[in-house]
Amino acid sequence: MNQPTGKRDNSITLTINGQPRTLETPPMKRLLDLLREDLHLTGAKEGCGEGECGSCSVLMNGELVNSCLVPALQADGATITTIEGLAIEEHLHPIQQCFLESGGAQCGICTPGMILATHHLLAKHPQPTLAQIQEGLAGNLCRCTGYIRIFAAVQSCAQQSSTQGDTPCTSTSSGTSPSPSASSLS
Ligand code: FES
Ligand code: FES
User: Fold this and answer.
1) Which residue CA neighbors atom 3 of ligand 1 most closely?
2) Bias regions of kind Polar residues — which residues (predicted)?
3) pTM score, two decimals?
4) Ligand 2 centre distance from Cα of residue 94 (Å)
5) CATH assignment of 11-85, among 3.20.20.105, 3.10.20.30, 3.40.50.300, 3.30.1120.10
6) What is d(CA 131, CA 137) in angstroms, rounded to the nearest whole number?
């Protein structure tokens, strides 16, 4: 947490998808609402609103968080990556492409969170076992796919990354990985 000392106003500064932003916000406003209402980044979805479903997942300083549980003040000074920050110009991110090709997305409510959870997983485990995939996505619920195609999408992306000999599944549109551990994969 990067809580400023002696802070008197309601402004916070954070980096969203590679862009620095300063915003006026009630300190206890949820990061999810800040993203959706103030920044119009509607990729993060509200499912349960209680930290149980993962549909609101974003990366905060490289860690996967439920943005419905993060007060805006806690995000002050943080680096945030949302699903909008993964695509590289007009091209889908490799993880998005794998979900598309594997049928890992149906209604799409869980998909942004699933993809960010996959990004976080592959930064830590470039070639994850099925058990590591299941554990890495355990905080993200899907009511449509039965998970099999989602796991297949993750395996496909890991396999492509291995075949290509680089780490495309941990890149972002800003050209850097939000994960501290991802730099060790290059
Ligand atoms: S809406 Fe945040 S975890 Fe469900
Ligand atoms: S695709 Fe519908 S909840 Fe996962």
Assistant:
1) 51
2) 11-20
3) 0.87
4) 19
5) 3.10.20.30
6) 10
